[in-house]
Every structure is written in C-alpha cells, then in structure tokens.
Amino acid sequence: MRKPVFAANWKMHNGPQDTRAFLQRFLAAYAPRDDRTVIFFPTAVSLAVAGFALRDRQDIPLGIQNIHWEDKGAFTGENSAPMARDCGASIALVGHSERRQNFGETDEMTAKKCAAAARAGLAPILCVGERAEERDRGTTLPVVLRQVKTGLGRLEKSQIPSIAIAYEPVWAIGTGKTARPEDATLVHAAIRRYLREVISARADDVPLIYGGSVTADNTAELLAASEVDGLLVGGASLDVDTWTRIVST
Ligand code: PEP
Questions:
Q1: How many angstroms separate the CA atoms of 231 and 124, rounded?
Q2: Is-catalytic flag, 168?
Q3: What crossing angle do the helices spanning 181-199 and 140-151 adopt, rounded to 10°?
Q4: Is 63 in the pocket of ligand 1 (CB under 6 A)?
Q5: Ligand 1: nearest atom to the Cα of 11
Q6: What does the pLDDT read at residue 211?
Q7: Which residue is catalytic, options 98, 105, 130, 168?
Q8: Is 213 in the pocket of ligand 1 (CB under 6 A)?
Q9: Nearest residue by C-alpha to atom 3 in ligand 1
C-alpha cells in the first residue's frame, strides 16, 4: 500500500534562519503520522540546518533539490549526492522543469543524476512533464514517457522500486493553472503501465506524485484521483499554516 506523499519544494526560498524558524513552527503543529510521508526540499545552503532541525523526526525525510552526477571534483557551485547524505538527506529531486528550462538539463543528464543519487543511497524523485506547446500538440504522453524512459535508463531494475516519479506539467508550475485530476490520472496511469513493462508487479511500489499549482483548496480533489499518490508543492509550501493544512488533508 503506497502512503500519500506530501513534498515541499522550497526552490530558492528560505535560507538557514528562515528554515530553522519554519521547521520549528511546523514540527510543533504536525505530530508524526504513519499514514503519510511529508518531505522537505530546502535550498542546498539550508540542508544541514534542516537536517539538524529534523534530527528527532525520522518520520520526515529530507531531500536536496538538485545534485551533480559526479561525487566530487572541479564543479564550482554544484553539490553532490554523498554531500547531501552527509547533511541528512535521503532523497534527491532530479530533472525539475526549472532545471531543464533554466539550466539546460537534458534527459541524459537526469539519467546520470538518478544513477548518482541511487549510488549514494539517495532515493531519486524524477520530475517529468510536458510544456504548454507539447500539450497543445497532443504530445503529452510521448514526451512524458520519453523523459521517464531516459531518466531511469541508467538505473538497475532492482533500484527502480525505490524511486518516485513526479508528474509536473510545466504549464501548471507556479501559474495557478492546475491539471484536472482526470488528466493527472491519465498520465500517471501511462507511467505505471510503462513501469509494469520494466519491473512487473514492483511497479506498484513506485509513488507517482502530481505537482503544479497545488493549494490547500485543491489538495483533497487531486489526492482522490486514481494513481495520484501524493503532491509536490512549491509556492503553497512556503507558508507554514497553508503547508500544515495541506499535509493534514
Ligand atoms: C514545483 O516547483 O515543483 C511546483 C509544483 O511549484 P508550484 O506548486 O508553485 O506550482
């Protein structure tokens, strides 16, 4: 049985001091629950502070928003999966559309990053999603399936059940336009079918998460959709009261 996942992607918000203050308030409001998983993705400079704040809350995993595919080396400004582990992270977001759009991240790079995460013991969450023009051309499924196939292409089959996939239509991220629950179901079902071709019944272990303009008001409806196992939330995760409402839905 997959538990609902609520993942906060803070993007480039909340430095160390704001992270500490947010988590202090959140932890006071949110008692551990075993029927859901809440994850935080702070910015890399806040990761160690978040790891310290969450040290007594094993129920709340921590993730890094992006990693390099090498473990160390001359890559100024980058962070590696083993370093994220050292800060307390157990998960890595890979291939967020803002990385793909603004930093030229390709499908092949996401494959190398997924492999690097798995090598270091971080569970990758591979982000996929079509752009508005791709949706308008009716190519959502081929685009998303290409991103999934290539992104997972360097993982051993035995590593795939430990990952998650976040379907985040690019046109829905930070725009206030949310995918209809039935459209998310359609895409998630296609991803699940592909995973079944690759890893048979273990495909059912892989959470398929929706992201794109999730709010406290549309959380319940999206979570009720078939094949939607959780939510990746940007803007609405930055306000502690809103986030507490979302994870308590
Ligand atoms: C995101 O950044 O992953 C995201 C879904 O953002 P927002 O919730 O703000 O659309």
A1: 15
A2: yes
A3: 40
A4: no
A5: 2
A6: 98
A7: 168
A8: yes
A9: 234
User: Tokens 């990746």 belong to which residue?
Assistant: 232
Structure tokens at 158: 């035995």
174 with 235: CB under 8 angstroms?
A: yes
Q: Is 234 in the pocket of ligand 1 (CB under 6 A)?
A: yes
Cβ burial of 197 (10 Å; 0-12, 13-18, 19+) is exposed
What pTM, to 2 d.p., does this model score?
A: 0.98
233 lines ligand 1 (CB under 6 A): yes
Q: What is the pLDDT, as a whole number, of residue 70?
A: 98
Residue at 153: amino acid letter: G
> Do the Cβ atoms of 36 and 247 come closer than 8 Å?
yes
CA R_g for the chain = 17
Dist. CA 150 → ligand 1 center (Å)? 23
Q: Which domains are assigned to the chain?
A: 5-247 (3.20.20.70)
**Nearest-CA neighbor of 210 among 151, 245, 162, 164?**
164
Is there a catalytic annotation at residue 78?
A: no
At 164-209, the pLDDT tens digits run 999 999 999 999 999 999 999 999 999 999 999 999 999 999 999 9
